[in-house]
Design a protein that fits this description.
It comes from Roseibium sediminicola. It is found in: Cell membrane. InterPro entries: ABC3_permease_C, Lipoprotein-release_system, MacB_PCD. It is a multi-pass membrane protein. The chain is of the alpha+beta class and 412 residues long. It has two domains: 193 residues, no CATH class; 167 residues, no CATH class. Helix 1 packs across helix 14, helix 2 packs antiparallel against helix 12 and helix 2 crosses helix 14. The protein has a six-stranded mixed beta barrel with strand order 3-4-9-6-8-7, surrounded by four helices. It has a two-stranded antiparallel ribbon with strand order 2-10. The chain has 16 helices and 14 strands.
Length: 412
């Protein structure tokens, strides 16, 4: 094998210019493939981290996956009922204290009760509709990033102000309100209550900054006329991988629908899978194009070294060895290109990681999300070597089938 490798290296070295061009083709393919994979996975990881921190890992809602059986269907054995009036019931999770206590016994993470509803916010003769969320501040801060989004005031002030209110900065700007102002909230039932603005937040999401507000849970229960009732429980887990298991167990235990972050974003996960397939398809296409350069140079070597092949076969080299020589020539170019491409990919990824840009005036200067992973280099190099081997194998099979007698007589 060493002799075959030396022969292959000599052939490649004798056509130095073509070898350098083919090697550069492989190097560029590997380098740009690694850089693209690092950028794509980095953006995916960054988005997922932002998403996971922004939403509950598990959320328990005040609804059932399957509709409840109506009393008439339990009482009477009938196929179909018409004109039934469902029993009116105040929707929500009853006995939240008991429900939270039963979850704390086994859930590894933080839990936060919430009561949300629609309300109209009025100030200085202007009205805006928004979603009002009643929270226990210290628990809400443990399961969400609202504390990091505060621009004025403190979210913890809701603990010390029974009628405190935290709203988005864009909602405050539309109303002309500011920190310390008193506003009026009116529920869908017509109940009105005055609140004092103790904080302004900015999430960067317009729908949240204009249509979301936080207040103490007790105050919201009074405003919505739902005493001792909540309509959701947010869970932030210590081990995010347990989200599906925790959601399933919580649903069995409480009887309410529990949704993990994976279930809530199932469509997004499928989109990421498709994007990864597209990414690696493009990477493979780039390296296949680089393989054509290797095929070209090995084919040229086979044509030019026909007499050498005849001499080697005359000396007793079997067809398998002749074929291995030219496959090794393709692999030599592939290895050199893979090494150079890995260095190029690392350099490109490192440079992209330093690039700064600013999207809007509200967003701080940020960098491109680059994820460095050894798997990117391994996959790109293996694809490069595979394409190099295939590119070398096709002309190698032709070389192995050459008849030395015909070559020596000048038939080819």
């Amino acid at each position: 094998m060493i002799l075959l490798l030396r022969i292959a290296a000599t052939h490649v070295r004798n056509r130095l210019r073509q070898t350098v061009v083919s090697t550069l083709g492989v190097a560029l393919g590997v380098g740009f493939s690694v850089a693209m994979a690092s950028l794509m996975e980095g953006s995916q990881r960054d988005f997922m981290a932002t998403l996971i921190e922004a939403i509950p890992h598990v959320e328990i809602l005040d609804e059932q996956r399957a509709p409840r059986d109506q009393p008439a269907s339990l009482k009477y054995d009938a196929v179909v009922f018409h004109g039934l009036r469902p029993k009116e019931d105040l929707r929500g999770i009853r006995n939240p204290t008991e429900a939270l206590a039963s979850l704390r016994d086994w859930v590894g993470g933080m839990l936060a009760p919430r009561l949300s509803g629609q309300a109209v916010l009025r100030y200085s003769g202007q009205d805006i509709g928004l979603t009002l969320i009643g929270v226990v501040p210290r628990r809400e801060l443990a399961v969400s990033k609202i504390g990091e989004d505060m621009r004025l005031g403190s979210f913890n002030d809701l603990d010390t102000t029974s009628n405190g209110l935290v709203i988005g900065d864009k909602a405050a700007s539309r109303l002309g309100a500011d920190l310390g102002d008193t506003v009026t909230l009116t529920s869908a039932n017509g109940v009105a209550k005055r609140f004092k603005i103790v904080g302004l937040f900015h999430t960067g999401i317009t729908t949240s900054d204009e249509g979301l507000a936080y207040a103490p849970l007790k105050a919201v229960q009074i405003l919505l006329e739902k005493p001792d009732i909540i309509n959701s429980i947010s869970i932030h887990l210590n081990r995010i991988k347990d989200a599906n298991e925790v959601a399933a167990r919580a649903e069995r235990q409480l009887g309410y629908k529990a949704v993990s972050w994976e279930e809530a974003n199932e469509g997004l996960m499928e989109a990421f899978f498709v994007r990864n397939v597209i990414m690696y398809t493009v990477v493979g296409a780039i390296l296949v194009v680089a393989g054509f350069g290797i095929y070209n140079i090995v084919s040229t070597i086979v044509h030019e070294k026909a007499k050498d092949i005849a001499i080697l076969k005359s000396l007793g080299f079997p067809e398998g060895d002749i074929q291995r020589i030219f496959v090794l020539e393709g692999l030599v170019i592939g290895v050199l290109g893979a090494i150079a491409g890995s260095c190029l990919g690392f350099a490109l990824s490192s440079y992209l990681a330093t690039v700064k840009f600013e999207l809007t005036t509200d967003v701080e200067m940020t960098r491109l999300p680059i994820h460095f992973s050894v798997y990117h280099y391994v996959i790109a190099c293996l694809l490069a070597l595979f394409s190099s081997a295939i590119a070398g194998l096709l002309p190698a099979r032709k070389a192995a089938r050459l008849n030395p007698v015909d070559i020596i007589r000048g038939a080819t």
